[in-house]
Automatic annotation (TrEMBL):
Alphabetized SUPFAM superfamilies for the sequence: FAD/NAD(P)-binding domain
Example of a GO MF term: oxidoreductase activity
Annotated BFD-like [2Fe-2S]-binding domain residues: 375-427
Signal peptide region: none
Protein name, per record: NAD(P)-binding protein
A Pfam family that the UniProt record links to this protein: Pyr_redox_2
Oxidoreductase in keyword set: yes
Keywords noted in UniProt: Oxidoreductase
Domain FAD/NAD(P)-binding residues, every copy: 4-315
Protein origin, superkingdom: Bacteria
InterPro entries on file: BFD-like_2Fe2S-bd_dom (IPR007419), BFD-like_2Fe2S-bd_dom_sf (IPR041854), FAD/NAD-bd_sf (IPR036188), FAD/NAD-binding_dom (IPR023753), Metab_Enz_Cyan_OpOx_G3PDH (IPR051691), Opine_Oxase_asu/HCN_bsu (IPR017224)
Length: 462
């Protein structure tokens, strides 16, 4: 069949989509900037590392092994492009950078499933750019990929499931955890139980992690607020307070901190391709409009964390669902029974994900309290004070207007790290509803690309 089906991302969502397509005789092309498949949860270690699946994935070892084995089994029927970064997209073309050769390429698609996952959601505090301070996701990547932890006296902070998962993984790896500073209240987590129980296995794991951390004597503080990191060349401690106390009431000496407030979907590629977006109240984020994983752009589908943060099981199901939509569009058979079973299970995981947003609520008071000296956009060194001044002195009241005035979100990360914080601060300072200040327009290159690519690009056009 002369119909190019392309999948962007070989995490759980992308692998599941590929499996469903191959089962019906489609030969998809799967792209990933990583050298190995697995995405975040099933991230694989480098070739010369020898940790077992149990050591790498803990409770998820069996499922990781099965998913990666199934992926291996379909390789003869897939064109897999690892080490390929998608740095731009327009019309029916993806612009790739092959990091190994290195070479610039273009890839045409007739149907495209974007399954490119999520990144940490960051709300900065004063001093957070000091060496020794990481996101929770980065701290986990250090462990999963390189088998190392981020320091010898570690504070983990923020909220979300990754906070406790990482704490448990670090504990098992023998790390010295000085404290877990949880933004949420213990009651938030209890009150969300009914919704969370739509994914009982995941709840059980969470309770187990908490019990083990408490048994090991790890200090866990609820309702904790980060004030400022101390340090000159490197972080040496963190000032914090509990909700209701005055700022910097407490101090913990440490040589490393990992923090984050849940995850945010990667949506820049659907944005470049012209998808319509809407503001999702529960996820507190702008997301592409979807109808059965199909975006408003014909032939373009989303799956996994990139379509809303609902975890690995939802990622696999939505990958399969997106693949089924493509099969239907090509008049290939899709079992109705299987489709309705997928919808039913996806419904449970969506309810579960809404439970997570209650258990680990978004820090809505952050914007009111962030100090003027706090760097918000680290690529362009724009502080909270700069943003406040731009709003009040120049009248900026929309994300792109603000960006044009003070360069917030204009740097290498293209807003991936800072846009949540800029968005919150702008809405607060303009006294507008959170969905009334717009969102940063995506620009290529989505991630930094070496100058060689630009030279090659220039050669191709002259
Ligand atoms: C840092 C981090 C760690 C996490 N750890 C866990 C965990 O241990 N346990 C858990 O249950 N959940 C974890 N999660 C949540 C996790 O993302 C989901 O459970 C699951 O992995 C989502 O699957 P996915 O296929 O949607 O996305 P992912 O697994 O994130 O896969 C997306 C893939 O797309 C690729 N990609 C992204 N952008 C591009 C691009 N521009 N060009 C080329 N390739 C690209 C990535 O390299 C990646 O392989 C983590 C999330 C993050 C951000």
């Amino acid at each position: 069949m002369n119909h190019n089906v392309v999948i962007l991302g070989s995490g759980p969502a992308g692998m599941s989509a590929a499996k469903a397509l191959v089962a019906q005789g489609i030969h998809p092309t799967v792209i990933d900037e990583n050298g190995k498949s697995g995405g975040q949860i099933y991230r694989q270690q480098p070739d010369n590392f020898t940790r077992t699946k149990k050591q790498l994935y803990g409770f998820d070892a069996k499922e990781a092994e099965q998913t990666l084995d199934e992926w291996q089994a379909i390789q003869p029927h897939v064109t897999y492009l690892p080490h390929h970064l998608v740095w731009n997209a327009a019309g029916n073309t993806l612009y790739l950078f092959d990091q190994q050769r290195p070479k610039y390429k273009e890839l045409h698609w007739d149907s495209l499933i974007i399954a490119n996952g999520a990144t940490d959601r960051i709300l900065p505090f004063s001093g957070w750019t000091l060496p020794g301070i990481y996101t929770l996701g980065a701290a986990q990547i250090a462990l999963k990929n390189q088998g190392c932890v981020i320091g010898s006296e570690i504070v983990l902070a923020g909220n979300g499931p990754l906070l406790y998962l990482l704490a448990w993984q670090y504990l098992k790896a023998g790390a010295n955890l000085k404290a877990i500073l949880d933004y949420s209240g213990f009651m938030d987590q209890c009150k969300a139980t009914t919704k969370l129980l739509h994914a009982p296995k995941v709840v059980y794991k969470g309770v187990y992690f908490l019990t083990e951390l408490k048994r090991a004597g790890v200090k866990i503080v609820y309702n904790a607020r980060l004030d400022s990191a101390n340090g000159d060349k490197k972080v040496t401690g963190i000032h914090w307070h509990k909700e209701g106390e005055s700022k910097a009431s407490h101090y913990i000496e440490c040589d490393s901190i990992a923090f984050g407030y849940g995850l945010r979907s990667e949506t820049q590629i659907p944005d470049l391709l012209g998808c319509e977006f809407y503001y999702h109240e529960q996820y507190r984020d702008w997301l592409p409009k979807l109808d059965n994983q199909q975006t408003t752009v014909p032939g373009l589908y989303l799956a996994g964390d990139g379509s809303g943060i609902a975890g690995v099981y939802a990622a696999k199901l939505s990958g399969e669902k997106a693949a089924n939509q493509i099969l239907s569009s090509l008049n290939l058979p899709v079992s109705e029974h299987a489709s309705s079973a997928i919808d039913k299970r996806l419904g449970h995981y969506t309810t579960f994900s809404y439970g997570l947003t209650k258990a680990f609520p978004f820090p809505t008071t952050w914007a009111a309290n962030v100090s003027d000296d706090t760097v918000i956009c680290r690529c362009e060194n724009v502080t909270a004070g700069d943003i406040r001044a731009t709003v009040h002195n120049k009248g900026a009241e929309e994300m792109n207007q603000l960006k044009a005035h003070c360069r917030s979100g204009m740097g290498r990360c293209q807003g991936r790290v800072c846009s949540t914080a800029i968005h919150e601060l702008l809405a607060y300072e303009t006294n507008k509803p959170i969905d009334a200040v717009g969102r940063i327009r995506s620009q290529s290159p989505l991630k930094p690309i070496p100058i060689i690519v630009e030279e090659e690009l220039a050669d191709e056009h002259h």
